[in-house]
Amino acid sequence: MKIATIGKIVSLFAIMVLAYMILTKDTELQYEVKGRVAGFSNTNTSIIIEHEKIEGYMDAMTMPFNVKDTSIITKLEVGLPIKFKYYVNLEDRSSYIYDIEQLNEGSIATLGNIASKQEYAFSNSQDSQYVQLGDILPKYDLIDQDGLEFSTKDLIGKKILLTFIYTNCPVPDYCPLMSFNFQKIHDKLDDNSNVILLSISFDPKRDLPTVLKDYGKKYTGTFLNWKFVTGKQKVIERITSDFSVLTQLDNDQIIHNLRTVNINEKGLITKIWPDNTWMVTEVLNEIGLK
Question: What pTM does this model have?
Answer without folding.
Answer: 0.69
